[in-house]
Amino acid sequence: MSEVHAARRDRLRDRCSVAGAAAVLVSRPANVRYLTGCAPAGSVLLIGPGPLDALVHRRSPSEEPAEGRQPEDVRAVVLPSPDGDPAVAAAELAAAELAATGPAGACLAVEEHHLTVARHRAIGSIAPGLRLSDLGGAVEQLRLVKDGQEIAALRIAAEIADQALGELLESILVGRTERHLALELERRLVDHGADGPAFPTHVGTGPHSGAARHVPTDRRVEEGDLLTVSLGACYRGYRCEVARTFVIGTSPADWQIELYDLVFAAQRAGREALAPGVACRDVDLATRRVLASTGHGDAAGEATGYGVGLEIGEDPRLSPAAMGKLDACVPVTVEPGVHLPDRGGVRIGDTLVVRPSADGGPELLTITTKELLAL
Amino acid sequence: MSEVHAARRDRLRDRCSVAGAAAVLVSRPANVRYLTGCAPAGSVLLIGPGPLDALVHRRSPSEEPAEGRQPEDVRAVVLPSPDGDPAVAAAELAAAELAATGPAGACLAVEEHHLTVARHRAIGSIAPGLRLSDLGGAVEQLRLVKDGQEIAALRIAAEIADQALGELLESILVGRTERHLALELERRLVDHGADGPAFPTHVGTGPHSGAARHVPTDRRVEEGDLLTVSLGACYRGYRCEVARTFVIGTSPADWQIELYDLVFAAQRAGREALAPGVACRDVDLATRRVLASTGHGDAAGEATGYGVGLEIGEDPRLSPAAMGKLDACVPVTVEPGVHLPDRGGVRIGDTLVVRPSADGGPELLTITTKELLAL
Fold it and tell me: SUPFAM superfamilies annotated for this entry (chains A, B) (predicted)?
């Protein structure tokens, strides 16, 4: 695995040296993890200018929780005081090495979308000879297209989420609260080998069903409710998402069936639109158009899906304002929903990997049935 | 409650107008919550320059999860596009209102320790006529001393954590994994009315016992282990922490008893040092000195305690480098630990409220016994 991370760092190094940066300071945790395989709390990665990249830790690596090992070709630098800022220490290190080897006025690229103004200023004052430039979303760009190992981790994450959800469906649901169901799902995720939930599990019943990012309450599941569950597993850092809506009791009401069929059709349209070269906004439009056909176009919210990987909701976004096109091997969610105030609604979501049609089209990772189950 | 938040905003307004700021943009979530009673994801608070303060939301407040209601004397402003940045929209609003009413070149104070460089730049370019200044930790300062309602919430949070821990102690522990015990504790916190865990629950057994912030693994509890549990409840946004160490089996080894007595004595020294007017570093020193007497002075790590409230680990810090003194009604943790590599260790922590001796001295909120229990 160590070579994988070294290759990623080399790609970033090449990109930055073209842009005139002599060294790069990566501070966003998911980016540090992508480039090293580990992300100890608060640590930052310095790429160049020395021959060995450096991971600057707050405390001794032996005391860090064991989530991924630091590659052997990366120096471990421990802050003299754990009160200090690893980013400042890394900039000081870069300045010292550049003063020894590099041209005067060399440039250190930093993640301005992650560093706070206060930290950026502290970096500037510890190393006044260093020019600071903006790395922007360069690492996020590299993270877009996933390699085989990343997709394998996502497949396992999806399998775990499907298992947890499947077990829940076999249990008695009426009378249990949203909060208990959410906690039980999270326990099952861990039972099946997840590092933990990919994000806080959403469970919404009755009037809460279908709402996006509904925070579970003490409302109990009742006969006749719609029940929406949205969960995901995190496996080796990789996060998936699956959302399903069920009906409680034997005979769904007509409005429930109609709404379900609508959201199902919208979600299918989005899934079927996924292909390399397709504009992200066109996938969103495919989903949204179906909802709009019955006047629910606004219900879809800001986006109908987004990229997943080391983060939930990473690039690309599937939204009306999204720029850019899909590539092969980009995992995304397609998860439209409609929520009717005071009545509830339906949300259906999957994690899929974009594939060319020659490879069979989009690969569905979350395979729990999307039939309207009556539980 | 609404008056409480209005009074807090008035205090901040006064402080800022003295410092020359015509308006204040608060973006750090715990600070927004402190000043309004709610903190919808991504929302920011604009204080002044208009007669009504404004909470800028990403989406309609009716779609927000119901955690605290927005006060009626605060305007709800919804972003036209949920893709936008509420901080930028708030700055635009401030600029428009200042252009209409205020002097030219008026100053907007922002939280430079929270805003990223990229967001700060976006604020600067949307409102070029506005000077940006640094609010610094002004809201964090206001948050230090807690009022009666805040302390009442912390008392309930502590009671919930004690209950969850007490129930765990009555169950069979041998053979269960750290991860399962942590999940079970979190479920029990919610059972007893917590919003959720105050932080990810730490459970460490055998060689993992006593380690700070140990991330639970699949290691199972064994006969003869030390078992360290650190958990907290979040109740109405307020977070407490309690840490205890137990021995599994009937007869602890001598080294386990010695280590326990040492950490217990250190923790007691820290608790007893808590009083209004005492320097934070002296509380740390009281704890650390006991550990140092047996050569474990370094084991205490960066800090032996810190403030709690809307966040775990807020100001003040109890560490060798800490500046400042304690005040009455400041809740803090005292939680030293010693971890011996490959053997394990002991950690004992409580949440207490600093009180003058005339009021009976520090108020212990987490009352689970600190005897060495053999389970």
Answer: Creatinase/aminopeptidase (SSF55920), Creatinase/prolidase N-terminal domain (SSF53092)
